[in-house]
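Hello,

Our lab assistant flagged a job as stuck in the queue for most of the afternoon. It eventually completed. Since we weren't sure the result was trustworthy after the delay, we are filing this so someone can double-check. Below is the sequence as submitted and the structure that was eventually returned. Let us know if re-running is recommended.
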Amino acid sequence: MALQPERTIAELKELRALTGNEDGAQRVAFTETWDKARAWLREKLAALPVTVETDEAGNLWATLPGASNREVLIGGHMDSVPNGGWLDGCLNVLAGLEIVRRVAAAGTPPVTVRLVDWADEEGARFGRSLFGSSAASGTMQPDTLRHLADKDGIKLAEAIARYGWSLDTAPQAHRQVKNAAAYLELHIEQGPVLESMNLPLGVVQGTFGVERHAIRFIGQAAHAGSTPMDKRRDAFGAAAKLGLEIREIAQRHGGVCTVGSVKTLPGIVTAVVGQCDITLDQRHMNAEALAAMLQEAQAASQRFAAEEQVTVEWQRIWQIHPIPFHPALLDMCDAAIRETVGVVHHLPSGPLHDAAEIARIGIPTIMMFVQSLRGISHNKIEDTREEHLVQAVIAFDKLADKTLAWVAGQ
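-- returned structure --
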């Protein structure tokens, strides 16, 4: 059976009709619509000579046995954000499904091939991304997740219990990767780089390191009418200066910095701001550059606090180091794209993906990006040209073939 990338596009549209509405995709993890998508995927897998199982963290695995028990994993996620796009996550799974079809039709592969649909990559409902892949990687700490609840007060532990899963046993999913020799993931870029270069496909160098902090400026609330400008201790003034400065810091180092939220107290139009809380997200592919960006932001916050006669406090929310992908797989991905479209670009991934969790435990990992129109994702207008989707499936299949041969030869 020859590869049929057009079938992948047809199945993406079929899934969109099944689990979306006029506002976009609605496959939020651990919901009825997500469960419907999973059942649909199982129906597709039933026609293949694979065994299908769901592990302790809710990850769905389809295994095509090979001549060796060494495994090449092809991964993605069927869950979406609310009102999401038609490609984010599910393209990875359905392109992988088409590759498994092609490999299975050719006979017994030299190594075992496994397609995985990771559970709750997005974290849209409970705020905890990479749920299933972190359980498989062994980095999940169940006790840190017990308090998580959705907007209706349903706790994460309760939601997964409805499927027979438990936070206590979720880390047992780690057994699934004991024979993994490589992990491959295809994804829409979710950004504007490839489109700006008029390129359909790119090699992902790795995922950004992230420094995420909560910053509090404390001044003095005072009457907006009776307090002279030179007598104010304006917490927002310091925060506003930092909000502009972090953009310059990002430009200097070639990274990205974002102030994503701002809260002021007392929060009324007639009062000078006495307290201002902001969040800062900094990302870079280079660990030293990321550390420098953080140091410069902290120094700038102290400088602006002094200028506005306020104080400043920092609290780390989250941190992850940059995760480079495997050199041999980078070369194979480059070759697969060149063979398909003749030209390639290497770029980092700003968003985190399940691939980051797998790479961080030493499993050779690679991602391939396909162009996103307008650079927009997590939105119903998310889109990619169909000719680029076809090229992506073809190139991803070439990458899988190269990886199977590479693992078999080790």
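-- support follow-up --
The delay was a queue issue, not a problem with the job. The result is valid. The mean pLDDT is 97. Residues 25 and 84 are 5 Å apart (CA to CA).
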